[in-house]
C-alpha cells in the first residue's frame, strides 16, 4: 500500500496531507514546508542552491543564471531520502523555480537502492486543478473519501463567499493588480485571477490558468488598478515591506491611482496565494477583506495582510 511513509517536497502537498489526516504518515519534508505547526521537526530532504535571503533582484539574477546553465535550483539530500525509505514522494513539474522537479526526484531515487517508491508529480494551473491535486493525493494515500469531503467543503466555502462578494454590479467591482515579484515586476497568474473574481474584484493584468507573466512599469501604469496587492512568492509581510523601500520612491509608483488612494496592501505570499492547497480558500477571504473594507472580517488581518 502506498502512502504509508510520505515525503512531501511541496508546502502545498504537506498541507494537503494534513487536511487528509495523514500527518502521522509524513516522514520528510522540503526546506519550505512549515505548516501546519510541528512539521518543522521532520527531516529536511532538499535545500536551495541559491541565496534565498538575498534581495529580490539578486534572487532573480541567480535563478535566471542557473536556469540558463541548466543547473537545478534545488538539491536533494540523497542520503536522507534513502534513510527515510518513503513509499510515496510528492513533488511537482509545474515550475523549475518553485520546488524540486520530477526529474530531480527520479534521479535521486535512482541513486538510492532498495526503494519501491511511487512519485506523484503535480502541476495545478487553476482552481479546478488544485482540487484535482487533493483528489490525486487522496488516491495515493488510499483516502479518496476523505479527499472528496475536503474538496466539497472548500468549494462550498468559496461558493458562499463568491455569491456574497459578487452581489454588486460588475461596474462597481474594484480593479486589482496582484504583484507576485517586485524586482523585476511579475503579476500573479494561475489560480490567483480566479480568487480575485471570487472575492468580488477584477484582475487587470493576470490571466487565469496561465503562468505568472513578467510585466514592465508602463504595463502597470496603463492598467492603473484601483487596488494593488503585493504577494511576492515565498515572501512574508515583513520581507515584502523591506523590498518596497527601493520601489516606493519611483516616479511611476507614485503616480499610480492605488498608491494615491492608499489602496496598496501587502499579503503574505509565503503562507497564502502561492500554495495551491487548502489555504487557497483563506487566500480568497484575504482578498475579500482587502477589496471590501469593513464588509468582511474573517480574521486574517494583520497576520495575512497589512496596508503598505
* Helical/strand content category: alpha/beta
CATH architecture of the largest domain: 3-Layer(aba) Sandwich
Share of residues in strands? 5-15%
Helical fraction equals 25-40%
- What is the CATH homology-level superfamily of the largest domain? Nitrogenase molybdenum iron protein domain
Instruction: Give the distance, in angstroms, between the N- and C-terminal Cα atoms.
Output: 49 Å
Q: Which sequence of SSEs, written as H and E, runs from N to C?
A: EHEEHEHEHEHHEEHEHEHHHEHE
Give the uncertain stretches in residue-range form. Answer: none
Describe the structure.
With 308 residues, the chain is α/β, with parallel strands linked by helices. The chain has two domains: 6-123, Rossmann fold (3-Layer(aba) Sandwich), CATH 3.40.50; 171-307, Nitrogenase molybdenum iron protein domain (Rossmann fold, 3-Layer(aba) Sandwich), CATH 3.40.50. The chain has twelve helices and twelve strands. The strands form three sheets. Strands 7, 8, 9, 10, 11 and 12 form a six-stranded mixed beta sheet that branches. It has a four-stranded parallel beta sheet with strand order 2-1-5-6, sandwiched between helices. Strand 1, helix 1 (11-19) and strand 2 form a beta-alpha-beta unit. Helix 5 (127-140) runs antiparallel to helix 6 (144-165) and helix 6 (144-165) runs parallel beside helix 12. The protein is globular. It starts with 5 loop residues before the first strand and ends with a strand.
Amino acid at each position: 500500500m502506498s502512502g504509508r511513509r510520505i515525503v512531501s517536497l511541496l508546502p502545498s502537498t504537506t498541507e494537503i496531507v494534513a487536511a487528509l489526516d495523514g500527518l502521522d504518515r509524513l516522514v520528510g519534508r522540503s526546506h519550505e514546508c512549515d505548516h501546519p505547526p510541528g512539521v518543522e521537526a521532520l527531516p529536511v530532504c532538499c535545500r536551495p542552491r541559491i541565496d534565498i535571503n538575498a534581495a529580490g533582484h539578486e534572487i532573480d539574477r541567480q535563478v535566471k543564471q542557473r536556469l540558463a546553465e541548466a543547473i537545478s535550483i534545488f538539491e536533494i539530500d540523497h542520503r536522507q531520502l534513502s534513510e527515510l525509505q518513503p513509499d510515496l514522494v510528492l513533488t511537482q513539474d509545474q515550475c523549475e523555480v518553485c520546488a524540486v522537479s520530477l526529474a530531480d526526484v527520479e534521479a535521486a531515487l535512482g541513486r538510492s537502492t532498495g526503494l519501491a517508491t511511487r512519485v506523484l508529480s503535480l502541476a495545478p494551473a487553476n482552481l479546478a486543478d488544485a482540487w484535482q491535486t487533493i483528489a490525486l493525493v487522496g488516491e495515493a494515500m488510499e483516502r479518496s473519501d476523505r479527499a472528496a469531503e475536503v474538496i466539497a467543503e472548500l468549494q462550498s466555502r468559496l461558493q458562499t463567499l463568491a455569491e456574497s462578494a459578487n452581489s454588486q454590479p460588475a461596474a462597481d467591482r474594484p480593479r486589482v493588480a496582484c504583484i507576485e515579484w517586485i524586482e523585476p515586476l511579475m503579476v500573479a497568474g494561475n489560480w490567483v485571477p480566479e480568487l480575485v473574481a471570487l472575492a468580488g474584484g477584477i484582475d487587470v493584468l493576470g490571466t487565469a490558468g496561465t503562468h505568472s507573466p513578467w510585466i514592465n512599469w508602463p504595463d502597470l501604469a496603463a492598467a492603473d488598478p484601483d487596488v494593488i496587492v503585493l504577494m511576492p512568492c515565498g515572501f512574508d509581510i515583513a520581507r515584502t515591506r523591506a523590498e518596497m523601500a527601493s520601489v516606493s520612491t519611483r516616479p511611476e509608483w507614485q503616480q499610480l491611482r492605488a498608491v494615491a488612494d492608499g489602496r496598496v496592501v501587502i499579503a503574505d505570499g509565503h503562507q497564502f496565494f502561492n500554495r495551491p492547497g487548502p489555504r487557497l480558500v483563506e487566500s480568497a477571504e484575504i482578498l475579500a477583506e482587502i477589496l471590501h473594507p469593513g464588509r468582511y472580517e474573517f480574521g486574517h488581518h494583520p497576520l495575512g495582510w497589512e496596508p503598505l
